[in-house]
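User: Could you check the structure of this?
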Amino acid sequence: MPETLRDRLTSASAAVLADFDSCFSEDWRLEDLGGLELPTQILMGMESPEVAQRTATLIFGQIPDAELVMLPGLGHMAPIHAPDWVNPRIKQHIARIERSAEHFAWPQSHAA
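Assistant: Sure, the predicted structure tokens are below.
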């Protein structure tokens, strides 16, 4: 392995270990996602590792009314590597939410 690559990997290893530690310390279960009641869009890169695709589909299967957007030819870093393709899909999702929010009203409250 070239020394420059080895140095980059070595310098990133502490952050990677911290990320894994953070993931393993979570106490929620997949079934807990079924209680979410908010518009949810899940982006899944079709070139992402199999474990990432499986995770996305499991999450999608638990969240009521979630939308799964498959990103052909892109991996799990699609928002970084292809923002021109990803960002419009996120904006469309937000626009749908904003349109539905126009019909939302808080209950009337009365001062005591």
